[in-house]
Amino acid sequence: xxxxxxxxxxxxxxxxxxxxxxxxxxxxxxxxxxxxxxxxxxxxxxxxxxxxxxxxxxxxxxxxxxxxxxxxxxxxxxxxxxxxxxxxxxxxxxxxxxxxxxxxxxx
Length: 107
What we know:
Elements: E1 17-22, E2 25-31, E3 40-45, E4 52-58, E5 64-72, E6 75-82, E7 86-93, H1 94-99
């Protein structure tokens, strides 16, 4: 373990989920905001330190929180609370995620 250090990842004190798909391919589901639980983003990292956004999962006036990820065959399944009333689910192909053009990461 290394010492805890500050990151550039925005977070409104909400849950995140990190899943290592391969040794050099890690995914992070998180709320890209310091004040609200929207938008819910998916980011990737090759080293677990530097993260780049690749998918906007959902955004809007609601609260999208408590993300969870599972890997099933060639897909990453992401579930999350939708306004604390419903559980929403998206399925993304791992190979397509690896080819996805990287979105700029907010500082």
